[in-house]
Amino acid sequence: MELGQGFCFEARQKRILIDHDYFKADLIFYNRILHCHFIVDLKIDRYRHEYASQLNTYKNYYRHEVMQPGDNPPIGLLLCTDYSDTLVQYSTEGLSDIFVGKYMLHLPSTETIRQYLIDHMPKQSEGETEYNQ
User: What pTM was computed for the model?
Assistant: First the structure.
């Protein structure tokens, strides 16, 4: 439900056999509206460039072995605890439909959330009230 409409859960820790080696994709979804698989890879540390290659391998496997006629190519989502925009840009350039995001292992404190909202909310102009927006 958090991902949006049309997502159907397919597998957790999906085993993928390539040649004689097994790999595991963390989460597999299929979106009925977009007609494509979503492969989600979860990492418990900071983004490293090899993570993009691993996810791209899973996407290519699904494109060659799992896609059905009428399906769109799979999309990869890599979630890490932190990442550098520059490293993500350089390591994913040329790889289509791979997205990198950040997640937190623990909920932040109330004060951290409050400060984030103060720092990221649009500022009101003088004379503007919340009802004028």
Answer: 0.76
